[in-house]
Amino acid sequence: MTLSETPPHAESQVPFALAANQSIMVGDTAFAYRDMGPMTEVPLVLFNHWGAVLDNFDPRIIDGLAKTRRIIASDYRGIGGSSGSAPLTVGEMADDAINLIRTLGFKQVDLLGFSLGGFVAQDIALKAPGLVRRLILTGTGPAGGTGIENVGKVSWPLMIKGLVHLRDPKFYLFFTQTKNGRQAASDFLKRLKERKKDRIKGSTPSAFIRQLKAITAWGKQAPQDLARIQIPTLVANGDSDIMVPSENSIALAQRIPNAQLIIYEDAGHGAIFQHHADFVTKAAAFLDAKG
Prior knowledge:
Layout: E1 22-26, E2 29-36, E3 44-47, H1 59-65, E4 71-74, H2 90-103, E5 109-114, H3 116-127, E6 132-138, H4 151-164, H5 170-173, H6 179-191, H7 205-220, E7 233-238, H8 247-255, E8 260-264, H9 271-274, H10 276-288
Helix pairs in contact: 1-10, 2-3
């Protein structure tokens, strides 16, 4: 992986598969990130799933949204190209994210969090409400949400199944096993291989386990007062999420005032990847809405 010094501006016309790997020091931690899209006043900052590195972001979603706005995607501390040890709590990840956003010089941002990233995005919105303009939560759930503490128990057998069948576990974890789901899984996994140079190293087993501990702790944590999130919020998921059960998305939409909800049929945890074109259209409209 090649990390460059922080550039003065984003790469407005470069697709995500070719975007430069960059690094910025936040305290004593070097955070790896990519910065692309036009220089809009309010950037969209993305937070990804358990064990994910920069190359696990769906290029169709990033490229689609980057047509009209600046996008910042990063690796969590201790993951991929970022230094340090992976935090053991979602709260620490949120603190890292707030410090990263401020170090990058942004006074206000939009957030898009997928899965674990949705936990982090909620915590940012609660801790630094003035920092967040609009919030998108996908494939995720609230602290103490139904079944979240069981993510490991659900995931390990399907990870082993992936090894046995020589398939990325996301084939089974993120998608339904219907004809549509399996095709969407294959398409998504192909997209993740589009970047050929300067790919980010995968998370270490230690970092992977530390993040799982943070997820389990979030699942056991006392519920947060989500009514305090007084910013426009969009919630999206599939109707068959086995990792963060879909009922959690419904709960988020009910507990966050005036939140919008999208539930895709015959779709699982990775519903936004399966329906990336529709999701990009709806997410862009949500982010561009007035008020």
